[in-house]
TrEMBL record:
SUPFAM superfamilies: Xylose isomerase-like (SSF51658)
Gene Ontology MF term list: isomerase activity
Annotated keywords: Isomerase
InterPro entries: IolE/XylAMocC-like, Xyl_isomerase-like_sf, Xyl_isomerase-like_TIM-brl
The keyword Plastid is annotated on this UniProt entry: no
The gene coding this protein: iolI
Domain of life: Bacteria
Annotated protein name in UniProt: Inosose isomerase
Source organism phylogeny: Bacteria, Bacillati, Bacillota, Bacilli, Bacillales
Signal sequence, renumbered to the chain: none
Domain Xylose isomerase-like TIM barrel residue range list: 21-262
Matching Gene3D superfamilies: Divalent-metal-dependent TIM barrel enzymes
């Protein structure tokens, strides 16, 4: 069983060098990098080749590059800009040996039909797939469990992945987003396990669907009201071999040092996963 850490958990008060050090010391096997701040700041004084050497020489390995945001239902010029940004991310992912790039949907107050959203997502994902497939990089679409996001349930994301029909396009299964908009366990039971690329762990307080906010309400794994063990059991039953990663945003946790936060992330995730052992990860 391999466990990863998403650097977004301490993004605003840490730096990549700290994250790498504390993740390895805490026991994490994998790390999810962040493009816009963490990696960009690192590259001000270092190079991609230096970071690749670090991963080659250490037990800690990269899991994903996060995140290409707002990919769908954009004006033509904006969509082209999204694609250009992805090209740079895919080049970096190839250099660093990162298997996945996470992409997220548009957040908007504009009313769009399900068909409009799906058609746009499929078109963009196919464009991105054409870029990343030759580089050996996969794309993990992450639905976001808030009403304003255009893709906000597991059902919707899997339908998009299925229609996209590219081997290197799959889904990110995030516990918080699954819980936040009341996605169905039956959908997970019927999912193709090969299409679930990453599983992100967290928990949540007891708010009704549609009220949870991911940058305010995420809790450490196993510390809230989610049916976490049931979700993990279903993932195991369907034969999902995706890597697990901890992603938590919670202002209360900012009182912890970066080292304490990363250690707590590992300890809470480990305790939860030990109760529902998984099969080895295969990228």
């Amino acid at each position: 069983m391999q466990i990863g850490y998403n650097v977004g958990t301490t993004l605003e008060r840490s730096a990549l060098e700290q994250d790498l050090k504390f993740c390895e010391e805490s026991g994490f096997d994998l790390i999810e990098l962040e493009w816009d701040k963490s990696l960009t700041e690192y590259l001000e004084e270092h190079s991609l080749s230096e970071l690749r050497t670090y991963f080659d020489d250490h037990r800690l390995k990269p899991l994903s590059l996060n995140a290409l945001a707002s990919i769908n239902n954009r004006a033509d010029a904006e969509e082209d800009e999204v694609v250009r940004k992805f090209e740079k991310m895919a080049e970096a992912a190839e250099t660093l040996g990162i298997p996945y790039i996470v992409v997220t949907p548009l957040r908007t107050e504009t009313k769009l039909t399900r068909g409009e959203i799906q058609a746009s997502c499929v078109r963009v994902l196919r464009r991105l797939s054409d870029i990343s497939a030759p580089k050996g990089v996969r794309i993990a679409l992450e639905f976001v469990g808030e009403p304003e996001y255009t893709v906000n349930t597991l059902e919707q994301s899997l339908a998009i992945v299925e229609e996209t029909a590219r081997d290197n396009v799959g889904a990110t299964f995030d516990f918080f987003h699954f819980h936040a908009m009341n996605s169905k366990l039956e959908t997970l039971r019927e999912a193709d396990p090969q299409r679930i690329f990453i599983v992100q762990l967290s928990d949540a307080p007891d708010y009704v669907p549609g009220m949870l906010k991911e940058h305010e309400d995420r809790l450490w794994p196993g510390q809230g009201v989610m049916r976490s063990e049931e979700m993990l059991n279903v993932l195991r039953e369907i034969g999902c071999q995706a890597a697990f990663s901890v992603e938590v945003f919670q202002k209360e946790y900012d009182k912890l040092s970066v080292e304490e936060a990363i250690r707590t992330a590992y300890e809470t995730a480990s305790k939860l996963l030990e109760r529902t052992p998984s099969k080895p990860v295969i990228f």
